[in-house]
Amino acid sequence: ISKLRAIIKAAAPKATESIKWAQPVYDENGPFAFIKPAKAHVTIGFWRGGQLKDPRGLLTGDGDRMKHIRLTNASEIDAKALTAFVQEAVKLNRDKGDPTKKANR
């Protein structure tokens, strides 16, 4: 979780970090990412995950908007890919507005 937090903070230095829905949530013009710890894994997810460029197919999820990556070990973290996802997610929020508002989805 510490490594994921560091990647997000470096990629989006103006973003705020808060605890919402019992997990760290990152916000810049609306929420763009979250980290959800579980007993056997950690999930990093993106509100606009379905809109992110993902040429390697790292993001999963059945929904049309939110997508995530499930990690079972810190060695699975792809800092370059996560940095790109964070930066693109922030840009989408800047361009389209808060993704939690129906009009901005």
Describe the protein in words.
There is one protein chain. Helices cover 27% and strands 26% of the residues. It has 105 residues and is α+β, with helices and mostly antiparallel strands. It has a five-stranded antiparallel sheet with strand order 1-2-3-4-5. α1 crosses α2. It starts with a helix and ends in a 9-residue tail after the last helix. The mean pLDDT is 95.
In short:
The protein is of the alpha+beta class. The protein has helices spanning 2-11, 79-96; strands at 16-20, 23-27, 31-37, 42-46, 67-71.
What descriptors fit this protein?
single chain; 105 residues; alpha+beta; five-stranded antiparallel sheet; 2 helices
Secondary structure topology:
Layout: H1 2-11, E1 16-20, E2 23-27, E3 31-37, E4 42-46, E5 67-71, H2 79-96
Antiparallel strand pairs: 1-2, 2-3, 3-4, 4-5
Helix pairs in contact: 1-2
